[in-house]
Specification:
The chain is 17% helix and 41% strand. With 161 residues, it is of the alpha+beta class. Strands 8-1-2-11-10-9 form a six-stranded mixed sheet. The protein has a five-stranded mixed sheet with strand order 3-6-7-5-4, with no helix packed on it. Residues 137-157 have low confidence and may be disordered. It has helices at 52-56, 108-111, 128-131, 139-152, and strands at residues 5-13, 16-21, 25-30, 40-42, 45-50, 68-73, 78-83, 85-93, 97-98, 112-118, 121-126.
């Protein structure tokens, strides 16, 4: 991978396109391969089920034939993230990653690390720690940090990936 690029796995939930940093992707399973209510064990690692649609309050049809489960790890936590569709693995030039606009000032600063365009769609870059539920226990602390992040986040292009 070139220094000027970042790799992401782009997925779709409802009408929302989301990007997960590719370094954490450990596999993609079909709907037939697993029971979505149970943890998944793959290569000796237990991946806890993650209902990202519920966490984001997004309407998603997770009964379709394209639905997949992304096995994701950030080194500390491991999750089996259900998605409607895996769109693809892409490399993005860092100059094409953008910070969240200033109207995002609260909890969503913890949820997303920025945004980018994939084809003609806006894709939000997920914060892997939040997506895997690591931040749920520290919500009060993070709200204060989110306000600090808004003030400290430069509005520079390319600073989000």
């Amino acid at each position: 991978m070139l220094v000027g690029t970042a790799s992401f796995l782009v997925v779709r939930l409802g009408l929302s396109y989301l990007a997960l940093p590719a370094t954490g992707v450990r596999g993609i399973l079909t709907q037939e391969a697993i029971d979505h209510e149970q943890a998944v064990t793959e290569a000796g690692i237990v991946y806890q089920p993650v209902d990202l649609a519920e966490r984001l309050s997004v309407s998603a049809d997770l009964s379709g034939t394209d639905r997949k489960t992304v096995l994701y790890s950030n080194g500390r936590s491991h999750g089996a993230i259900r998605v409607e569709q895996v769109v693809g693995l892409i490399d993005v030039e860092r100059k094409d990653c953008f910070p969240l606009p200033l109207q995002f000032q609260r909890d969503e600063r913890c949820w997303f690390g920025g945004m980018m365009f994939y084809q003609d769609q806006l894709a939000l870059i997920l914060n892997p720690s939040w997506a895997l539920g690591e931040l749920a226990d520290a919500a009060t602390v993070l709200i204060g940090k989110a306000k600090q992040t808004v003030e400290a986040t430069p509005a520079a292009i390319g600073g989000s990936c």
